[in-house]
Specification:
single chain, 323 residues, mainly beta, twelve-stranded parallel sheet, six-stranded parallel sheet, 2 helices
């Protein structure tokens, strides 16, 4: 017995929007099988937004935006709202990207292994290159973002008061292995004045939940109830703002250079494994665990050169903060 739902969507554009529900369920099913029984929901969707802008004029100004939105509807306001809508991190209407599997009510008698699992392997990359060169002055802005609202939920809640048997191993498992990568370079070069603003941002609101409710389950092998997060979230930014050139500055000439860079990751959600009610009996091991092994990193490199120069660079990760 094998029941699977799989999402392998691929999208390539300057902007990517992904809203989807990928749950599978068995409701009030009497399952008898001599071998293995498996219910599995897998999402391996890939979104890639790539933007490269070069502006070269007497007085140049350039803005570039690349973003992926997962679990949001009506997100066109992000482009229309400009920088403020970008930094708010709340475009469109919430429509959580769901991956899950559930066995509700019914009866299980499997001679081999029994598995109910959900796996989110979504990958979103936003890559941006913004370069502005103005003979007299230049202004450059580069904004790249991945915003993801997702949940991976797996539930085993068979009929209460009924004995359920598995000859091998029983596994109820939810896993989040999503990747959100934002990478950008920004440069501005002008004789009298140059300004630059760049933000690379990831925001992930992910929930991972595995639970067994009211199950009278006997297994000939192990019983595992697992919730795991192994997400990888990375924001990397390199920005350069220059005014006047090195020779001009050496002569005491040149102008003003201002540079503001921010690479940040905002992470919310939770990882939960719960067993409530019922009875679990395993001939092997019984393992109930929730683990968050997510990798989160932000890297920022800024260069500012001018007769008068000022630069601000921030790289930080915020975990468990709403604002």
């Amino acid at each position: 017995f094998f029941f699977q739902a799989e999402d392998g969507i691929r999208d390539r554009d300057v902007t990517g929007v992904q809203t989807c529900a990928l749950p599978i369920s068995a409701n009030d099913v009497n399952l008898r099988v001599d071998g293995d029984a498996s219910m599995r929901a897998d999402s391996s969707a890939t979104l890639s937004a790539t933007n490269k802008v070069l502006t070269n004029t007497l007085g140049g100004a350039g803005t570039a935006l690349a973003y992926n939105l997962i679990g949001r509807e009506g997100a066109g306001g992000l482009k229309a709202g400009g920088v403020k809508a970008f930094l708010d991190g709340n475009p469109g209407t919430l429509a959580t990207y769901e991956v899950g599997a559930s066995f509700d009510k019914g009866f299980v008698n499997a001679g081999g292994d029994f598995t109910v699992s959900g796996n989110l392997a979504l990958k979103a990359t936003a890559t941006l290159s913004q370069e502005t060169d103005g003979a007299f002055g230049s202004s450059s802005a580069a904004l790249a973002q991945n915003l993801s609202e997702a949940s991976t939920q797996v539930r085993f809640a068979p009929t209460v008061g009924t004995e359920h048997y598995v000859g091998g191993n029983a596994r109820i498992a939810a896993k989040d292995a999503a990747e959100l990568i934002a990478t950008g370079t920004m440069s501005a070069d002008g004789f009298f004045a140059s300004t630059g603003l760049a933000v690379m941002r990831n925001q992930a609101n992910h929930v991972v939940d595995a639970r067994v409710t009211g199950a009278e389950l006997t297994a000939g092998g192990d019983i595992d109830v697992w919730a795991d997060s192994k997400a990888r979230i990375q924001a990397t930014l390199t920005g350069s703002v220059e005014s006047g050139g090195s020779t001009t500055r050496a002569l005491g000439l040149g102008g003003l250079a201002l540079n503001s860079l921010m690479a940040t990751n905002l992470i919310n959600g939770g990882v939960t494994a719960i067993v409530s009610g019922g009875r679990l009996a395993a001939a092997g091991d019984l393992d109930v665990h929730a683990a968050n092994d997510a990798q989160i990193g932000s890297i920022n490199k800024a260069t500012t050169s001018g007769k008068v120069a000022a630069g601000i660079a921030m790289a930080f990760n915020a975990v468990g903060w709403q604002d």
